[in-house]
Design a protein that fits this description.
Blueprint lengths: L8 H4 L4 H23 L4 H8 L3 H8 L8 H11 L12 H21 L1
Helix pairs in contact: 2-5, 3-4
């Protein structure tokens, strides 16, 4: 049986917190663009015309090549659909924040001792 994770899969793969958050965001935005393309029965060529981008960019999105396209670019494409954006950020629990803060404190103290 596969283990189900509730955390960011990119963090579990070893990416740092900032990069894993960006990769997760880009993955989510790409999935929303793919939904729009599928719902409206667009070919890659028609989608490229609609979004005003080269067809290879649509190919990157439809094949999930998250490393090829920035989150800014993806937001710009989604804005063209006329859909509504919703933003959210869930604050970490006190325990999770304390764990992250303690690792920063330890790292900072370790660097001071080395100097």
């Amino acid at each position: 049986m596969a283990k189900v994770s509730k955390s960011n899969v990119f963090e579990e793969l070893g990416f740092d917190a900032a990069e894993s958050a960006d990769l997760a965001l880009r993955t989510y935005l790409m999935s929303e663009i793919r939904k729009f393309i599928k719902t409206n029965n667009l070919t890659q060529i028609r989608a490229a015309r609609f979004f005003g981008v080269p067809q290879p960019k649509i190919s990157y999105i439809t094949t999930g090549k998250v490393e090829k396209i920035s989150s800014d670019y993806l937001v710009g494409l989604l804005a063209k659909t006329g859909g509504d954006f919703r933003y959210s950020f869930k604050q970490p629990t006190k325990r999770k924040a304390a764990e992250r803060l303690s690792s920063i404190t330890f790292s900072y103290n370790f660097q001071i001792e080395k100097e």
